[in-house]
Amino acid sequence: MSTTNSRANADDDQFLPAPPELLQAVDQLKAYSLRYEVAMKLVLDKLDYISREYELRYGYALIDSKQSRIKSPESIIGKLQRKHLPLTFNAVFSELHDIAGIRLIVRFLSDIKTVEDLLATQADIKVLRVKDYIHHPKTNGYQSLHLILGVPIYTVDGPNIIEVELQIRTIAMNFWASLEHELNYKKNVPEQATLQASLTKKAQLITELDQEMDDIKRRMYQSKTPPQSS
Ligand code: 0O2
Asked: Which of 21, 142, 180, 204 is least enclosed, having the fewest CB within 10 Å?
């Protein structure tokens, strides 16, 4: 019986133990990644609770769906490069605010404010920053509410505030944003600039649709859901 010793393979040279700094960096990355995962889970659990309690109390589904992700190393590097930032841990943790990201999809425009208000009542998480692309859409037509949340995590080194980005948008805004994202990430799309211009125009239709649907919702549910803060 012949035995093969994989270590004897010349190709294995690339798997030789990495220098200590590299191993240290990998460990550091894993530890941080864990913190972001835990912080994100905490926010997801809160959103889940808010959604279920709201539905029990008012018979109304506040949250349609949610997606979450930890930004991949490739995407982190890509973003640092796009922003002309150095490829350092410091730059990652101080300049990138969406390493942990949650996208929350609601049905109606006014539900965005309701979720924002309910989150603001949570004593343990803080809204550190708000980017309101709904009242101030981007020039390409992008609409969404972005909140950077500060979430306390109790690590072995003591308490730490970890940032989690929460994007809240309606189903219609999400439909628009996902197509726009696809258009811009795909290479060799014929007439890309024309299609982008067309999408920018369609963003106005999304605004009108959202406003009209919200009006219908208000009339359907006005006696059931709590009055909204302005
Ligand atoms: P991905 O692949 O979704 O993660 P900041 O440094 O905080 O001032 P930042 O993070 O560069 O600004 O930008 P911003 O405006 O807060 O946007 C962060 C995320 O929002 C993006 O993440 C997208 O997910 C989404 N987004 C922002 N603008 C647009 C847009 O014009 N179209 C679409 N479809 N999505 C948008 P990433 O890292 O770019 O991408």
From this structure: 21
Query: What is the CATH architecture assignment of 19-221?
Result: 2-Layer Sandwich (3.30)
Contact call for residues 110 and 213 (beta carbons, < 8 A): no
CB-ligand 1 contact for 180 (6 Å cutoff): yes
Ligand 1 centroid–CA 8 distance in Å is 47
Query: In this structure, which residue's CA is closest to atom 18 in ligand 1?
Result: 98
Which amino acid makes up residue 70? I
pTM of the model: 0.87
Cα-to-centroid distance, 69 and ligand 1 (Å): 14
Give the torsion sign (CA, 188, 194, 195, 197). positive
Smallest CA separation from ligand 1 atom 19, residue: 98
Atom of ligand 1 nearest to the CA of 146: 16
155 alpha carbon – ligand 1 mean position (Å): 29
pLDDT one-digit tens code per residue, 125-182 = 999 999 999 999 999 999 999 999 999 999 888 999 999 999 999 999 999 999 999 9
Assess whether the C-beta atom of 155 lies below 6 angstroms from ligand 1. Answer: no
